[in-house]
Amino acid sequence: MIKLALFASAVLVAPVSSGAAPTYNQDIAPILNSQCALCHRPGEVAPFSLLTYQDAAKRAAMIAAVTKAHIMPPWKAEAGYGTFQHERRLTPEQIALIDAWAKAGAPEGNPKDKPAAPGFTEGWAGGEPSLVLKTGSGFNVPAQGNDRFRCFVLPLNLDKDTYIQTVEFRPGNRSVVHHGVIYVDETGAARRRAANSPDGSYPCFGGPGVAATGLIAGWAPGSITTPGDPQDSTPVKKGTDLVLQIHYHPSGKPETDISSVGVTFSNPPPTHGKTSVIMVNTSIDIAPGDSAYVSKSSLTLPRDVEISAIFPHAHWLCKDMKVDAFLPSGEITHLIWIKDWDFNWQGAYHYDKPVALPKGTRIDMTYTFDNSDKNIRNPSSPPARVQFGEQTTDEMAVAFFTAILPTPEDVAPFQRDMRLAMLDSLLASGDMSALSRLPGMNGRGRQVMQMFDKNGDGKLDEDERAALMNFLRMMMR
Ligand code: HEC
């Protein structure tokens, strides 16, 4: 009976099968080639290949189960909450076809229906780079033990300010490289931190461990780099270093990795401005055992902006991440929703079309954490109090945005206004030390805070905060 019902639905959605069960050659191979082979082929991240009939047929039931449960292909962003490039999602029809095929005993079908083997770019997907930077002489990953997180400082050695069109990460040893994130450091802080190491690197977990200027690229298995639009290149100052953080996962035998970063500079300068914006809640404080701690923060955009990508970030305890934009018109634009956050599958999500957010838009970031012993990813056993920080046992609630502005000249004033908007958001969430961290405060943060804390209760309520922000805006003109 069940078989018949499924059969009927498969026929309904795929009339080409004209009554026969779906076959590998005609129906299934095209799906596996386009949606699975990216990772399920020799030398890639997945544990087995799915390129041939034999590969697929012996796992037919498992393939049907993981596709039905939406575990494969891995794609964390919920449908309907942002439309992204290279979305990895099967249609209900494709899932039904796979199911019907597995239930029919995984028939191979007619060899003449078999599609051509999928092709993959083996070189740089984003085009031949102007500069290739490598991570030293080989980083050793032992056979067993904890995952390693390493930051490699990659000096650009620029003799003048310039623009970067594309940054592409290429893992060296794919059996151990789990993901890579590339930050931009204009301050030299990362370089100083790596000064005593032979290969210009240092251990780091959550982020680069220094106040990096921004995030320029993220790579996880299956990520696809596109050449980028020269009109949207990122300005970088002379003296800037890239900081590449790699997450290594031991493979069972000792391995060595040399990964590369390809950088393509653009010339002439872009017409648009581009910068990365970070939204963060530093006031996280999760009691041990709390299985549904909610971190909520808001930020109001000081200028019109277009968002081309979002990179949500937290550590092991986070379960659910939601970022929504409330436009002044009353309209709500969902920026992303990840219902089952997994630190191992973090990455950048590029919008299909840039999302326009006018001045006055409020962005709400709502992240939920599970600090109970039921959370199998909890790094502490028994659970311990968890606060904001960079270590494995700390937590984060962060969203990086790639912002596109009308012209390159808009970047500096936008960054200045955003620093204040972010400060306002941090003060609102209770982080009073944020004021002292504002560049130019020179240790007077406490004094300024007391000046505006009219009722002397040690925090800034809404009116007091508004007065402080007006004052700072005036000062920074
Ligand atoms: C972005 C990379 C990627 C893509 C795309 C992908 N997989 Fe996987 N797959 C993995 C990895 C990695 C694993 C190993 C388990 C893990 O780490 O989550 C895996 C595991 C599996 C498993 C074993 C699950 C288990 O419980 O052992 C099956 C079956 C599977 N994939 C099927 C598929 C199918 C079918 C598709 C396409 C519809 C697909 N995968 C697409 C990366 C991918």
List keywords for this structure.
single chain; 477 residues; alpha+beta; Jelly Rolls; five-stranded antiparallel β-sheet; four-stranded antiparallel β-sheet; globular; disordered N terminus; binds heme C
Q: Outline of this structure?
A:
With about 475 residues, this protein is of the alpha+beta class. The chain has 9 helices and 21 strands.
What does this structure look like?
With 477 residues, this protein is of the alpha+beta class. The protein has three domains: 2-106, no CATH class; 131-270, Jelly Rolls; 274-434, Jelly Rolls (Sandwich). It has nine helices and 21 strands. The protein has helices at residues 2-13, 24-35, 53-57, 60-68, 92-103, 189-193, 411-428, 445-452, 462-476, and strands at 131-134, 139-141, 148-155, 162-170, 177-185, 201-203, 214-219, 234-236, 241-248, 255-257, 260-265, 273-280, 285-286, 293-300, 305-313, 318-326, 332-338, 349-357, 362-369, 386-387, 398-405. A five-stranded antiparallel beta sheet has the order 6-3-9-5-7. A four-stranded antiparallel beta sheet has the order 1-11-4-8, with no helix packed on it. Helix 1 crosses helix 5 (92-103). The structure holds heme C.
N-to-C CA distance: 74 Å
List bound small molecules: heme C
Binned, the helix content reads: 10-25%
Report the structural category.
Answer: alpha+beta
Percentage of β-strand residues = 25-35%
What's the architecture of the largest domain, going by CATH? Sandwich
Order of helices and strands: HHHHHEEEEEHEEEEEEEEEEEEEEEEHHH
Draw up the topology in text:
Elements: H1 2-13, H2 24-35, H3 53-57, H4 60-68, H5 92-103, E1 131-134, E2 139-141, E3 148-155, E4 162-170, E5 177-185, H6 189-193, E6 201-203, E7 214-219, E8 234-236, E9 241-248, E10 255-257, E11 260-265, E12 273-280, E13 285-286, E14 293-300, E15 305-313, E16 318-326, E17 332-338, E18 349-357, E19 362-369, E20 386-387, E21 398-405, H7 411-428, H8 445-452, H9 462-476
Antiparallel strand pairs: 1-11, 2-10, 3-6, 3-9, 4-8, 4-11, 5-7, 5-9, 12-21, 13-20, 14-19, 15-18, 15-21, 16-17, 16-19
Bound molecules: heme C.
